[in-house]
Write a structure and sequence with these properties.
The chain contains no helices and eleven strands. It is mainly β and 122 residues long. 0% of the residues lie in helices and 48% in strands.
């Protein structure tokens, strides 16, 4: 089992940057795909980025490509999401998730953090 805890959210002006961190418990972290998702009020949870197993492939949603960077450190059981050039439409609660399947669907992830709020003002 994996427990996930996000941090790093906050309020930022458009064009600014934030770095989200996801700290995981458990000795099998490196065997999981780690994904970042977000959910804005009244909208469905949507895929942002994922990084596959240790040293594996990375994939981004088109809406964040070129602005966001996902990374993982299996030695520290952490996964980060660096967010640059933030836009008001990036405002949402951001979640990290762990799963066994490399997917953009939140339904295929087994473990979730509690989420961290990101608010981008115009």
């Amino acid at each position: 089992q994996v427990q996930l805890d996000e941090s790093g959210g906050g309020l930022v002006q458009a064009g600014g940057s934030l770095r989200l961190s996801c700290a995981a418990s458990g000795r099998t972290f490196s065997t999981y795909v780690i994904g970042w998702f977000r959910q804005a009020p009244g909208k469905e949870r949507e895929f942002v980025a994922r990084v596959n197993w240790s040293g594996g492939r990375i994939y981004y949603a088109d809406s964040v490509k070129g602005r966001f960077t996902i990374s993982r450190n299996d030695a520290k059981n952490t996964a980060d999401l660096q967010m640059n050039n933030l836009k008001p439409e990036d405002t949402a609660v951001y979640y990290c998730a762990a799963g066994r399947v490399s997917s953009t669907s939140p339904r295929l992830y087994d473990y979730w953090g509690q989420g961290t709020q990101v608010t981008v003002s115009s």
